[in-house]
Specification:
This protein is α/β, with parallel strands linked by helices. It has four domains: about 80 residues, GMP Synthetase, Chain A, domain 3, CATH 3.30.300; about 180 residues, P-loop containing nucleotide triphosphate hydrolases (Rossmann fold), CATH 3.40.50; about 70 residues, Helicase, Ruva Protein, domain 3; about 100 residues, DnaA protein, C-terminal DNA-binding domain (Chromosomal Replication Initiator Protein Dnaa, Chain: A, Orthogonal Bundle). Helices cover about 50% and strands about 10% of the residues. The strands form three sheets. The protein has a five-stranded parallel beta sheet with strand order 5-6-7-4-8, with helices on both faces. Strands 1-2-3 form a three-stranded mixed beta sheet. A two-stranded antiparallel ribbon has the order 9-10. Helix 9 links the parallel strand 6 and strand 7. The radius of gyration is 26 Å and the shape is elongated. The two termini are about 40 Å apart.
Length: about 500
């Protein structure tokens, strides 16, 4: 069967939305560090007529992206309803085609050898030239795109971190001078760090504020050594009113950069400036960090940003959806949360994907449940590491419908039993990676065609918003499906 690209006839705004969702999903899939390394500093992604066009700065980068990330680009594109997507690799300029990147520091960096890092030592690391480092720093220091406190959803898991961040940014007189935030990826640390910078600059327009990642700090330091501009680098980093470094754990095993960071903290502290750091782990748990640097981190306030609880994730999903003009029913929001994962970043990425799919048309906003399922795929995110089993789905179906398991897997043809069996087949197809023959075996059926037909019938019930009787309730087919899905995840949690 031949398919045409869903993006061919998209309006420019739709294409832009899809491209934004593609980039967000790729960043989520690869991780922020790897994404920024390859797709922010070394390549540009564009979308046109169903083609994913990647323009790399060098032939080396183009080849590397093609070998290692083509599959991710294709898979993500299909989730955005780009049928038969094609990835086109291009090189920005012919002059750079044969250039291979130099290592910025790698894991071999130390005080004695840092000045000798001239040649290509690690072909896996793209080059970060002095000019590129400087441009990147200027973008960050401009404050363009910095997040705001007003957009941060405050709840019990992050309240202390939020209040501490505001104290650094707002308090006069005797403020909090050193704050160290830590927590798992995607819980909002970067949002707080950028909000601190924005608020501090609003309160002090003339203040010298610097926001950088640990990777940027390292790259600029090594570039300064190479260019014999170390004093200029130190003037830039030590004569500040506020220095914020995200992903400080990037400095692990980089002894020269750690030493420079230690002296930077001391210098800033001596002048009474403020400093905020963030990491995925507590200072004592960061691998290959010097004892002296860990001690400096612990001299300030150390606050953990906990993972958002379910209520917070639901509120976040609703908030993100509203910002994008999506009016989703409560059941659809619950499905979104179940499938998006636990982090704030994943939830935001899921909403962006839903918005992109909606912009393509074909699914009315009133069918929010179908829209979410279409956008986020069949397989639900499990908060337990193992895959969902059909037996767990059958148990949940029996709980929500009141049908006995023996009847469910038996040969009974009562309407309620047939409907419950269709619900089980539908959820087994969505929440597991099993084929219809495998699902048929689990449901005690010799032919998979009957299971395929049962799942299809239940799907039609969802699309028709058909009312069903479940225990003592009257529910739509979509609501019953979602209630049963949550029951599966509740038992597994």
């Amino acid at each position: 069967m031949h398919h045409t690209s869903a993006a061919v006839d998209c309006a420019p705004d739709s294409t832009s939305t899809i491209l934004q969702a593609l980039r967000s999903a790729l960043r989520q899939r690869l991780g922020a560090r790897k994404y920024e390394l390859w797709f922010q500093d070394n390549a540009q992604i564009d979308l046109s007529l169903g083609e994913i066009r990647v323009t790399a700065q060098t032939q080396f980068a183009a080849d590397w992206i093609d070998r290692h990330f083509r599959l991710e680009l294709l898979e993500i594109s299909r989730t955005l309803m780009i049928e038969e997507p094609q990835v086109i690799m291009r090189v920005q300029s012919s002059a750079a085609q044969n250039a291979k990147p130099q290592a910025v520091a790698g894991e071999a960096e130390n005080v004695e050898c840092a000045t000798t890092l001239k040649g290509p030592t690690d072909p896996k690391m793209p080059t970060m030239t002095a000019r590129k480092v400087s441009q990147s720093a200027r973008r960050e220091d401009s404050g363009a795109g910095w997040k705001r406190f007003e957009d941060f959803l405050v709840a019990a898991p992050n309240r202390l971190a939020y209040e501490s961040a505001r104290q650094v940014a707002e308090v006069q007189g005797d403020p909090l001078r050193l704050l160290f935030l830590h927590g798992s990826c995607g819980v909002g640390k970067t949002h707080l760090l950028q909000s601190i910078c924005r608020r501090f600059r609003e309160r002090h327009p003339e203040a010298k504020v610097r926001y950088a990642t640990g990777e940027q700090f390292t790259n600029e330091f090594i570039s300064a050594i190479r260019e014999d501009n170390i004093e200029q680098f130190r003037r830039k980093t030590r004569r500040l009113d506020l220095l914020v470094i995200d992903d400080i754990h990037f400095l692990g095993n980089k002894t020269a950069t750690q030493s420079e960071c230690l002296h930077t903290i001391d210098a800033i502290g001596f002048h009474g400036a403020r400093m905020v750091l963030a990491s995925d782990a507590h200072p004592r748990q960061i691998a290959k960090f010097s004892a002296a640097l860990v001690s400096r981190f612990l001299s300030g306030m150390v606050v953990k940003v906990d993972d958002p609880d379910r209520a917070t994730r639901v509120a976040l999903a609703s908030q993100f959806a509203q910002r994008r003009g999506l009016v989703l029913p409560a059941a659809a929001i619950e499905t979104l949360v179940d499938r998006a994962g636990a982090s704030v970043r994943e939830i935001e990425g899921a909403v962006m994907t839903i918005a992109a799919v909606h912009s393509l048309g074909g699914i009315e906003m009133g069918n929010g449940q179908i829209l979410v399922e279409r956008a986020l795929g069949r397989v639900a995110t499990s908060h337990v590491g193992r895959p969902v089993r059909v037996a767990e789905i059958l148990h949940a179906v029996c709980t929500t419908t009141g049908i006995e398991r023996e009847d469910l897997v038996g040969g009974g043809r009562h309407r309620r039993v047939v409907t419950a069996r269709g619900l089980a087949a539908h959820l087994a197809r969505e929440m597991t990676t099993l084929s219809f023959p495998e699902i048929a075996t689990a449901l005690g059926r010799s032919s998979h065609s009957t299971i395929h037909a049962a799942a299809a019938r239940y799907r039609n019930m969802i699309e028709r918003s058909e009312l069903l009787s479940a225990r003592n309730d009257q529910l739509t087919a979509a609501d019953l499906s979602e209630r049963t899905r949550r029951e599966v995840l509740r038992v597994r949690a």
